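To whoever is on call:

I kicked off a structure prediction for a single chain this morning and the downstream step that reads the tokens threw a length-mismatch warning. I double-checked the sequence; it's 137 residues and nothing unusual in it as far as I can see. Pasting both halves so you can look.
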Amino acid sequence: MQRSLLVYDGSNALFRAAAEAVTGRSERVAAVRWGAEPVQSFLEAQFGDRPFAFILVEGDAVHVGEETVGRVLRRGGVAEPVVEGLRRTYSAVAGPFTAVVHGRRAADLHGTFELRPEAAAHLEELRRVHEVPVRES
């Protein structure tokens, strides 16, 4: 079974704790930090850009933004009305929140995209590790 990858912002202790809560009890999902060079190469190959976004790669699908929020919460057994409310909240607050916390806005990119073959080539290495090394700025 292929490991899913949760791409998250690893620059903040709160976000690292949240990623650990989502992935810590599962061998099926690995958390990888958005700023890691292998992740950046994947993003460039998938989107032709490096969108600052919350991303979940499952099989041949790449879920982004509010779609990632929904899928992560459903995996955690959260009730559907709560999931839908938090998806909408994410869409409304992600940009302004990340602008304040990081000095840049989260990409206004939401939905599910087919995994591009050139992006898939970057995933095998990422799926084998538990944590992607990140160079601190």
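Update from on-call: the warning came from a stale cache, not from the record. Cleared it. Sanity check on the structure: The first strand starts at residue 4 and ends at 8.
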